[in-house]
Sequence to fold (100 residues):
Amino acid sequence: MFKNIALIIFLMCSPSLCGAYENGNNMSTDTKLLHRAFDNQMLSLKVMMSKLRELLYSLNDIKELESAGLPHRDAELMYSTLLAKITQTKNQTLSLITAL
Fold:
């Protein structure tokens, strides 16, 4: 699971995945629409990465809650539910990267 997350983080830190944009007014309408669609997908990817990062930090919060007195059974339930959400978000992020 964490290898895939590391791949996602690496891809977010790398330069633009589509190469350099053309500058100037000579771009066709189709090219401009493609660039806008790509920009929207990249923005969606950044949001998904932020959400995934937040979910990973929440795993530590559950451990802290358990050490503060939350019953182990409740902590395990919260932990397994959070892991399922992390897996779902990771899969959505990977499919978004594949679409790019």
Remarks:
- The chain is about 80% helix and 0% strand.
- Residues 29-67 form the longest helix (39 residues).
